[in-house]
Write a structure and sequence with these properties.
Largest sheet: 5 strands, antiparallel
Oligomer: single chain
Structural class: alpha+beta
Strand content: 15-25%
Number of strands: 17
Number of domains: 3
CATH topology of the largest domain: Dna Topoisomerase Vi A Subunit, Chain: A, domain 2
CATH class of the largest domain: Alpha Beta
Order of helices and strands: HHEEEEEHHEEEHHEEEEEEHEHEHEH
Radius of gyration: 20 Å
């Protein structure tokens, strides 16, 4: 891999692969706690339109290679070597996700059985049987490169896709509505809302802590208005929101509450953790350490 190819990698994907996620999003800007120094207020910005980063606290920025050199404190050749060696297997490489506008093409959708994907779910403390019930294994290509990921179908024919190195969507973006069998008339006692499908899968581990509920997964905070519109046709007796403990999650709930003043904000149940999954992973690791 050369510098040009490395700089085509989305910086947000690279950070995600390092376990670094944005603290907030504003338009095309993703804000992080700086990965190259310590801070308490996010001042590290990634502009996804131009795929550039800028650390406001240090007054420096640039492309992916510039970031990698600072993050790992290595020279250019060593950083490029690290990218080359970051692979799940021969079918998927971290380097492969291009940042241009080439549309992904789904080649195959099958039952969830790939070991790399199952290992990733287990790292996130998701019950495999639950994941298989709601997710698929999606093989797709972008240009001349091939990938695979966990696929979670939305209501408009798209797939939210996720693996250890990438988070995105193939096809149209939309919410995912999961109605219980006895709620197929679009009327239910409780509906629970989640920002992402990993939180949804976490919440219903072992048949779930809210097993009497039907569900809406936003798949993006930008889909909150679609979720509100969807609730009009469902008319649940109670609405419970399991959004993230951050500014975006709070804004989502405030939007929901305008139309549904009786909606219940459940985020205190997993505070001080960011989301349901983060809290569950921590509690599971803690319980295992005592075994």
């Amino acid at each position: 891999m050369n510098c040009r190819e490395a700089n085509e990698i989305l910086i947000t994907d690279f950070l995600y692969a390092q376990g670094i996620e944005p603290k907030r999003m504003s338009g095309n800007n993703y804000w992080y706690l700086s990965p190259i120094r310590e801070e308490k207020t996010p001042s590290f910005k990634v502009d996804i339109t131009i795929n550039r980063w800028y650390d406001h606290g240090m007054g420096v920025g640039g492309k992916l290679v510039d970031l990698g050199i600072r993050l790992f404190e290595v020279d250019v050749n060593e950083f490029l070597s690290r990218l080359d060696s970051t692979k799940i297997n021969d079918s998927f490489s971290f380097q492969a996700q291009p940042s241009n506008k080439v549309e992904p093409l789904i080649k195959k959708v099958k039952e969830l059985e790939n070991k790399a994907l199952l290992d990733y779910l287990q790292e996130r403390a998701v019950n495999i049987d639950v994941a298989r019930r709601y997710c698929k294994e999606v093989y797709y290509s972008i240009g001349d490169r091939n990938y695979f990921a966990i696929g979670f179908a939305n209501d408009v024919g798209g797939y939210e896709i996720r693996n250890k190195y990438f988070k995105g969507c193939i096809g149209p973006k939309g919410i995912s509505t999961i109605m219980q069998p006895y709620d197929q008339n679009r009327s239910c006692k409780v509906i629970s809302l989640f920002e992402g499908f990993i939180d949804f899968l976490t919440a219903i581990n072992d048949d779930g802590v809210i097993s009497e509920s039907s569900y809406i997964v936003l798949n993006s905070v930008n889909q909150i208005h679609s979720a509100v519109a969807g609730l009009y046709s469902i008319e649940p007796a109670r609405i419970m929101a399991y959004f993230d403990n951050d500014e975006a999650g709070a804004n989502c709930f405030n939007t929901l509450k305008i139309s549904y003043p009786g909606a219940i904000n459940m985020s205190h149940e997993y505070a001080p953790f960011k989301d349901v999954n983060e809290a569950f992973v921590y509690l599971k690791s803690k319980s295992q350490s005592h075994d």
